[in-house]
Specification:
The chain is α/β, with parallel strands linked by helices. It contains eight helices and eleven strands. Helix content is about 30%, strand content about 15%. Belongs to the peptidase C56 family. HSP31-like subfamily.
């Protein structure tokens, strides 16, 4: 899906979703990408006419979680036939030409913890976008995509960077600290990142150069707004 009203000369933002649909590697409760962590950033980008396209690790229709249609932004997108059609036909991330995009964004949802960090395509496209001067954004469990991204010099992208992600305390609060394959915030710190937690379920957005990250679903709109401002400033 590409938005129709575009800001002059800004290339699309690639919005990436998990294709992993269960809480666990071999089964368990259903999960996927968290709807509000896609729709709220999209609303911020579209308000400025910034175009976007959707991709997922495997392509096709990704599994959705957090389907809260009492949320007006979620409902607006979910009831939009063009948006739903785009979700049914996301690009496979491995087929993506990174040079087409001004930014890449990784939505969260627990599924991201299994396929984002192990995807060579996520690592490649993120590295190529970032090293071409583009913006990298992620929210909640979306930063799982960043834990294994290395740059051309061999350093982790997150090393020395200030960022925010779903905290270990939040993972314990939802009872999944023993289910996820690793604790996200701890692992990012092990990669050399400077993690900045806020109290559980409090909006927290951290911008470090062209890296924009948010802690939890409450941070999703703020991540989109910060990415929008960076992209407009670059334009």
């Amino acid at each position: 899906m590409t938005s129709t009203t575009t800001a002059p000369s800004i290339r699309p933002v690639l919005m990436v979703l998990t294709s992993h649909g269960t809480k666990g590697a071999t089964g368990g409760e259903p999960t996927g990408f968290y709807l509000g962590e896609l729709t709220h950033p999209l609303a911020e980008l579209e308000a400025a006419g910034i175009p976007f396209e959707l991709a997922s690790i495997q392509g096709g229709e990704p599994p959705v979680d957090g389907l809260d249609l009492g949320d007006a932004v979620n409902a607006r997108y979910w009831n939009d036939s063009a948006f739903r059609e785009a979700l049914r036909h996301t690009q496979r991330l491995g087929d993506v030409d990174a040079s087409k995009y001004s930014a890449i964004f990784f939505a969260g949802g627990h599924g991201a913890m299994w396929d984002f960090p192990t995807s060579p395509d996520a690592a490649r496209v993120t590295r190529e976008v970032y090293e071409a001067g583009g913006v990298v954004g992620a929210v909640c469990h979306g930063p799982a995509a960043l834990v294994n991204v290395t740059l051309g010099n061999g350093a982790y992208l997150v090393a020395g960077k200030n960022l925010s992600a779903f905290t270990d305390d939040e993972e314990r609060a939802v009872g999944l600290a023993q289910t996820v394959p690793f604790l996200l915030a701890t692992t990012l710190v092990q990669r050399g990142a400077h993690h900045h937690p806020a109290p559980d379920w409090t909006a927290q957005v951290v911008v470090d150069g062209r890296l924009v990250t948010g802690q939890n679903p409450q941070s999703a709109a703020g991540v989109g707004a910060a990415m929008r401002e960076l992209l407009l400033r670059q334009n």
